[in-house]
Amino acid sequence: QVQLVESGGGSVQPGGSLRLFCAASGIAFSFVTMAWYRQAPGKQRELVAQITRGYGTNYVDSVKGRFTISRDNAKNTVYLQMNSLKPDDTAVYYCGVPIVTTWGQGTQVTVSS
Prior knowledge:
By secondary structure, the chain is an all-beta fold. The chain is built from no helices and 11 strands. Strands 2, 4, 5, 6, 9, 10 and 11 form a 7-stranded mixed β-sheet that branches.
């Protein structure tokens, strides 16, 4: 069974930074694309960033230049470095494996003054 556990969320002021972690198990981690999603209250779940098995990346336009997705295949872990955070980044962030439509439990990120 695929298991994904997110951590690293918290509350920060605008302009601050957070680093999210996702520990994966039950999958051939190095062979799959991993992704981060987020969902704010009253809004649809949004794909934030993806990283392929070949380390190619893509981001939603609103986070380009501020967020960086990375992975460590030896540790079965995917990361999301978030810099220059804005209030609009406030959401629950979920780690996902798109090919099997699986997400973790989420970690809350709150950006406010």
